[in-house]
Amino acid sequence: MITDSEKLHEECGVFGVFSKGTVNVASTVYYGLFSLQHRGQEGCGIAVNDRGVIHSYKDLGLVNDVFTTNVLNSFGEGNMAVGHVRYGTTGTNDRNNVQPIVVNHVKGRMALAHNGNLVNSAQLREQLELEGSIFHTTSDTEVISYVITKERINCPSIEEAVNRAMYKIDGAYSLIVLSPAKLIAARDPRGFRPLCYGVTEDGRYIVASESCALDAVGAKLIRDIRPGEIVVFNKEGIRSIEDHCGTKNGAMCIFEYIYFARPDSKIDGCNVHKARVRAGELLAKSHPAEADIVIGVPDSGLDAAIGYARESGIPYGIGFIKNKYIGRTFISPDQLSREDKVKIKLNPISEVVKGKRVVMIDDSIVRGTTSERIVRLVREAGAKEVHVRISAPPFVSPCYYGVDIDSKENLIACKHSVDEIARIIGADSLGYLSREDVTKIADGSSCTGFCCACFDEKYPTSIPVGNNKNKFEQVIPEEKMKTKEKGDVNEELQ
Predict the structure, then answer these.
(1) Is the alpha carbon torsion for 313, 315, 319, 324 positive or negative?
(2) Which of 27-41, 85-99, 128-142 is predicted least confidently?
(3) pLDDT at residue 69 greater than cutoff 70
(4) How many CB atoms lie within 10 A of CB 87?
(5) Which is the catalytic residue, given 12, 196, 212, 454?
(6) Per-residue confidence (pLDDT) for residue 468, from 0 to 100
(7) Which domains does the chain have, with CATH numbers?
(8) Which of 227, 334, 394, 396 has the least C-beta neighbours within 10 A?
């Protein structure tokens, strides 16, 4: 069955906690994962370390559905824990692919949670299989766990095993590794995905994909983990390993600022809300419109709409009400049913747009189907004109680093000009944020560079061999499973 998500998705979010004493760490992870739910809604898991013994539980579903009171109570107390929320861009959507992954090996146990995608996963997997490794999932995370485990058997510490593994794995990865005595956080040398850490008033250290998760558990942000850095938390304190820092050019995913991260998060020193407002301001300068009101498509289009209105002088209005109780819906067998679900999720406020020339801000256009439906809703609500502005450049290539951007054949910008896309979606005009302006939105960020490959095809790594991303492929040939082609139940994009 194909799901209708209407939007792009990021692969997942990670969260970890280290305490010098034994406490109820599972509840801390629960609240942290709840605040990261926007990064993944397919499955979630928690692993707790209780004096060297690791207990874990994971399943498909949302955090509050999977972790009932009884499940949380079953963890008891511990001094360390790691959690994960997943949206699968690599690997099938089943319980086995939900993280954290727990590994038993001759030197102990390890739990691992991972955000991102490797570009050499297929080669590493084949090599490991030829050496006798038996895989139980189709995810990159299990490949990483095997590489770390293999190194751990031949080196004196878990952090050194992670350090050695980072010479072999390539691509996007923000990791949290739980061992019997240590919590380890690591970020790939290019810094594709965000990762930060903070501390609570009672001295617990928190590691998370976004700073909003620190806020949720009362932790103060200390800093972002630097690209290539390994941070070790144990009873002796915190230690940083920087062997991989500065070895690659920075390539932070710019779409974290445009869409994926929560607006109240701060990534590499830049507030996400501020970045989106800045995107709207730049849009107003490059693509002005004669209009009466500016509205944003919830949720990430709202901040950019505020920026557009501020820069243009056109009043800002709340043009849509989003039904926050609608979860992931399913495509029905006919077109009319699909359109009805868009209306259920998003409803225009006719009193705001009726008889007016409207500038409608959204974060992206992928296939164009959802944009066409939303424009039609605004017109049916009485808008005289609808001018669409997008706070990102056009998508012209797929992403291999954990963002669910489709193959070229399904990207509307690869087939049509801007004017043609405007006609297809029913807009009076259409304007995209330029490739030159998009990296200006993260003003004040400590990033040394951004990945914009989905906008310009300039990939910072090699492209995975045989990885032809097609989100509408429902049959998973065995040979494609081995080359890590997207094999989950695919989403219909915007």
Answers:
(1) positive
(2) 85-99
(3) yes
(4) 23
(5) 12
(6) 53
(7) 3-251 (3.60.20.10), 267-451 (3.40.50.2020)
(8) 334
